Every structure is written in structure tokens, then in C-alpha cells.
């Protein structure tokens, strides 16, 4: 799908250029989910937030992030 690839490319470029904004958005979404679920899934949400933030950090122009990467640590 050419349209999806174009959208993905634009999203990755935005994340590379604005990692702080993207990280804030990830945190806000996690907080929203925790609020709506009463914190019932807080551990899972925190893990997803950490993974998403790690991915964004990996996009920072150093070619360390990406699909299929297993972030250990």
C-alpha cells in the first residue's frame, strides 16, 4: 500500500524531528488509558509506553530503532 508507506514515512520523520512532543503524546495517551480503566492495566500500559518511547529514541537519526528489534535492558 503506497499510501500507508507514505503516511508511515511522514510519521517517522515527524518523530525524528520532534521526539519530545511524541514522547509527551505517548505519556498523555498512557495517562488517559490509566484514567479510563482505573489503573487496572497500569503495568501493561507502562510497558507499552516505555517500548514506544524507546522506539522513538531509536529513530533519532542513529538507525538503532526499527521493526523487529528486540530492546533488552
Short characterization:
This protein is an all-alpha fold and 73 residues long. It contains 3 helices and no strands.
Give the tags:
mainly alpha; 73 residues; 3 helices; 71% helix; 0% strand; single chain
Furnish the topology, listing elements before pairings:
Layout: H1 2-17, H2 19-37, H3 42-58
Helix pairs in contact: 1-2, 2-3
Describe the structure.
By secondary structure, this protein is mainly alpha-helical. The chain contains three helices and no strands. The chain has helices at 2-17, 19-37, 42-58. The protein starts with a helix and ends in a 15-residue tail after the last helix. Residues 62-73 have low confidence and may be disordered.
Shape: elongated
Q: Tell me the series of helices and strands, N- to C-terminal.
A: HHH
Strand count, sense and closure of the main sheet? none
Strand element count: 0
Helix content: over 70%
